[in-house]
Amino acid sequence: MRLILVVLALSVLPQSGFAAEVGFPLFEMTPDLEDQGSLQRGAKIYMNYCLGCHSLQYQRYKRTAEDLGVPESLMLEHLVFDPNTKIGDPIKNTISKDNAKAWFGAVPPDLTLYTQLKGGPEYLYTYLLTFYEDSQRPLGANNLVYENVGMPHALLELQGVQKKVCKQIPKLAANGGEMMDPLSQNYITEEVCGLELIERGYSPLELVENSGQLTAEGYEQVVYDLTNFLYYVGDPSRLERERTGVFVLIFLAFFFVPAYLLAREYKKEFH
Fold it and tell me: CA–CA distance from 26 to each of 71, 164, 168 (Å)?
């Protein structure tokens, strides 16, 4: 009951509040639960790259297979790696709490309700796109959304290494325009880093060339699919509920006419 109340309380908070909290503008991400291919790809990425540390203890393999249109035999063969796991079992991992604390400093959280409680799918989508190399961190990685994060970049081999950069960009005048040298007609530049770069429309991160398996567009699609899958996991009945709601509204629209006519006949008895 307490968990339900927490979910309801957080669901009414504006997403911009989370963006302000992390100090980093969240990228736009619109989930599509009708895209079964995206959900299937997201499930594959999750099982291969995330499940080793993060469980989905409130979601079962059977429900996932049914909703994603995956035959149970294929789910067991390709997405269930523990031979002792049954199709009706929750999606859990076998990492011990002691090992997790020793490796990461804390037990990795369960992600079943992550997109519901942590700023929505935009937060996770942005988080997975903004890892960068940081030799000062124990695991060699940091994150623009979650500074000093205690986890490695799990999708590093797909995306490649990103590094934080500063750039020489045109300096802004008092009126908001870009300053230009009146003699040379060249822009007067200044070195800008971090959030100010983003505010000016530049990225503070750059990929090290040929360091990942995917192109930038390919990796963004992977992150979208993974986020889309976790959005589905956070509320598996959402799509079915929304479809039912449409039929209910259609029924009420048709029912309104006879109900109105019946009410008008009843009123005649009082006049």
Answer: 36, 18, 24
